[in-house]
Amino acid sequence: MSAFGRKNGIGGMSAGARPSFGVARPMKGGAAAEGPAAKAPVPGGEQFPPIPGGMSAGGMPPSGGVPEKADAMSRLQDRANNVVEGQAKIEGFEASVHKIKEQVLPRLLERVDPEAAATLSKEELSEEFRPIIMEVLAELKVTLNRREQFALEKVLIDELLGFGPLEELLNDPDVSDIMVNGPDQTYIEKKGKLTIAPIRFRDEQHLFQIAQRIVNQVGRRVDQTTPLADARLKDGSRVNVIVPPLSLRGTAISIRKFSEKPITLDMLEGFGSMSKKMCTALKIAGACRMNVVISGGTGSGKTTMLNALSKMIDPGERVLTIEDAAELR
């Protein structure tokens, strides 16, 4: 027998011998088989237990295919299909919540004073909203489970107190840039990759209201007479707003988010952004009050470098900054 269970010829084997691989066969020509006390031969292969899993001798499946590779690929494909189905369920859940929000919000605004609501915290507003939302849902004959109800409350509160659809992007720590080009198109930069965000504004008026809410927080305004404004969010994110007629495709909003953890020169060296010698030279320049000019293109890291360099300033020094929009942290 060969390693693949092919016979090399039974006749060449010694008496009483048996194949080393494959199905065992009854002995032929052996001296023990010719005596009167010889036992009846056991049918071929039945003296061994069956091979599990439908595998033949030699480890190959009966059909001659690859034994486990096909099963492994099938399991991987099933797992991928389950992930896609899970994502589809999440997207379907979010879509249903937003669809209900479009029905509930107009009726909710009829019962709520937006100016009074602005004086409440999100927790207080949630407590005030809950019975009103249930009343509106009863009028619309819509039944929600607890998960959907909490999601609807959050979306409605974000519409009245927050920045609407932008809230979920602002709360995502992996998103570094948000670029809104009109109500139907929003791009985000996430982990260095630019993708289209799964959010939409109701219309241009809805987007314009969100833009006004952003700039009003820093005492600025944006309209046709002042179509360009810069602002800063509470978390330090930098915002630029452009509205018509300066913007040709409707209101445009650009938000540059900064890391919650302050970046230092040592961290930039660790990232590979500069050499060790360059890091040492910048530390000396920052600590010794040298004149330094930081320049570069959009998104090149000017603000990050400025903030890292400013960490070397003596805490006892008085620092004066002249900024259009506050960026130094």
What level of helicity do the residues show?
25-40%
| Number of contiguous helices | 10
The count of DSSP E runs of length 2 or more, i.e. the number of strands, is: 6
Low-confidence stretches: 1-11, 19-24, 28-36, 53-59, 83-91
- Average pLDDT, rounded to a whole number, is 74
Euclidean distance between termini CA atoms: 79 Å
- Label the structural class: alpha+beta
Tally of discrete structural domains: 3
Q: Which geometry do the CA atoms define?
A: elongated
Spatial strand sequence of the major β-sheet: 3-2-1-6-5-4
Portion in beta strands: 5-15%
Radius of gyration: 36 Å
Q: Please describe the biggest sheet, giving its number of strands, its sense, and whether it closes into a barrel.
A: 6 strands, antiparallel
Order of helices and strands: HHHHHHEEEHEEEHHH
